[in-house]
Amino acid sequence: MADLGSKRNSLAPISCLPDEVLSLIFEAACTDRGSCQSAPLNVAAVSRAWRDIALRTPRIWNAITISSASLFLPRSKGCPLDIEVNVGCHSATERYFALCIPHSDRWRSLNIRTWQGDVLTMFLSARMPRLQSLVASWGGRNARRPPAEAESFGPQLSIAQASHSQLLTLDLDSLYLPLNSFNFSRLVKLRLASTHSTSADITPTRELLHTLNACPNLEVLYLDKIYLSTESESHLHQYARAPIHLPLLREASFHFLSPHTFKAVLTSIQFTTSVSMSISTNTDPTVDTDWRNVFPVVPNLSLIHELKIFLSDDIWDVTGCDFGGKSLLTITCVLKGRRGTSNLTHIVSSLIAFVQHHPMPHVIDLRIAGSRDHSSAAALHDFHSLFAGFPLLTSLTIDYWSALVDAIILAPGEVIFPRLRRLCLRWNTIVHNRLVELVRARNRPSGASVSDSANGGVPLQRLTLVECKDISDSLASELREMAPEIKYRIFAPDSSSADSDDASTEGDFEMDFNPL
């Protein structure tokens, strides 16, 4: 039977491929991190021929874990190794280290998650001249507070690597390693999360700026909850003001940093026009936030043409994209304190203050969404000052915020969004008379020129209603009779074709009334 199976395998079309091609296919199949342990074993179990090829392909055996080390290390021969350490039994970890340490000169990446200081010491003190990626995190019940002795790990690692570091990726979570322990000349990705300095002799932000200045090839920068203590505002005056040039930086994320770290980073780095930035911060509802002081510099605001705004009772989120849809900026602001509907006014005021302090004058497409259907008119008069910051707007979408429809109804002589051509209302409760009033205010009178409308701006050209409540049966005909120049599209709440994005204001809409 075994001979018959071997004969059948030899007749399969894939058996006609050269061994070198199969070897390349095996490598491609075993590169996925989720299957890098099982895939080599599965490949080797198919047939004798495949097993022989798999054993002659050392790169499929280079993902080393505590369970695979004894089998994979001999088969990996001389190829670079990816070492993963996720501490369980301490004695098993010591045996694992004893297997791995003779091959430390082949370590390409080290991914270590532990809550045991001696395990960190063992692995980080190894000689790793070919290391390209170091990911280290302090896990377990005390993950938020790394051990005080963690400060000693950096110097041990720096002695091991000296000036021969090949690091491309450095990712530290809940650990403090002095950044001057590393050679950053080749670094492409830097991530620091929940990192604290416990030494009074260290100025972490100055150390961080010095590090960034030594990363000319940096492409991804991620800072999250770092240096929340140990520094005061007075330290800012000690930092060198020389600009930091990162010409290859394409992603930058800054989340819940201390105020002085925010300022130092944003004012020092010279961001390119291609960078995609993400920022998260907190705001105190009891005081007015001066966003020019919180974020002295926000890059590429003038390049934003599409803006999405999300508001709930305790958060606002802004995402800005360029003409091609590439995300340039995402800012999330979380309201401190207890949650509740009374906070909505504070959230709206905080958002409006941000837009006023950091204007985005070239936005032409705006989407505003609530977490639910806000019918309250609280702070709606303030939205007029928000809307005034987008004089070139041509397309507006409002989701789950019925009260905002009132905010864009024009009073005599009032001008809001003078260039608005496309309006989409999705999942709102529609008041019949108010919607008719809105269309009338934004419609040009019969016989008027195309450039004239009742509000002195560009007349509305397209109106889309998606699954809005309380739409009367007579609304469609009344709108068509009053303003036939406008292209309408109305999706009833039970309409299966009302997809959330397909039913947006983009595209060329013909007159399309669904029976209501």
Description:
By secondary structure, the protein is α/β, with parallel strands linked by helices. It contains 16 helices and 20 strands. Among the domains are: 1-61, no CATH class; 373-516, Alpha-Beta Horseshoe (Leucine-rich repeat, LRR (right-handed beta-alpha superhelix)), CATH 3.80.10. The protein has an 18-stranded mixed β-sheet. The chain has a two-stranded parallel sheet with strand order 8-10. Helix content is 27%, strand content 20%.
Q: What is shown here, in short?
A:
This protein is of the alpha/beta class.
Topology, please?
Elements: H1 2-11, H2 19-29, H3 38-44, H4 48-55, E1 63-64, H5 69-76, E2 81-86, H6 90-100, E3 107-114, H7 117-124, E4 133-138, H8 153-161, E5 169-173, E6 189-193, H9 204-213, E7 220-224, E8 244-245, E9 251-255, H10 259-268, E10 269-270, E11 276-283, H11 291-294, E12 306-311, E13 315-321, E14 327-335, H12 344-357, E15 365-370, H13 380-387, E16 395-399, H14 403-407, E17 422-426, H15 432-441, E18 462-466, H16 475-482, E19 487-491, E20 512-513
Parallel strand pairs: 1-2, 2-3, 3-4, 4-5, 5-6, 6-7, 7-9, 8-10, 9-11, 11-14, 12-15, 15-16, 16-17, 17-18, 18-19, 19-20
Antiparallel strand pairs: 12-13, 13-14
**What's the average pLDDT?**
79
Count the E strands. Answer: 20
CATH topology of the domain at 373-516: Leucine-rich repeat, LRR (right-handed beta-alpha superhelix)
Q: With helices defined by DSSP (H or I, 4 residues minimum), what is the helix count?
A: 16
Report the CATH C-level class of the domain at 373-516.
Answer: Alpha Beta
Tell me the overall shape.
globular
Largest sheet: 18 strands, mixed
Radius of gyration: 30 Å
CATH architectural group of the domain at 373-516: Alpha-Beta Horseshoe
**Strand fraction:** 15-25%
Helix amount, in percent? 25-40%
* Helix and strand composition category: alpha/beta
Outline the low-pLDDT stretches.
141-159, 498-516
Query: How many angstroms separate the termini?
Result: 70 Å
Pfam families: F-box-like
Protein name: F-box domain-containing protein
Biased composition (Acidic residues): 499-516
Domain F-box: 14-66
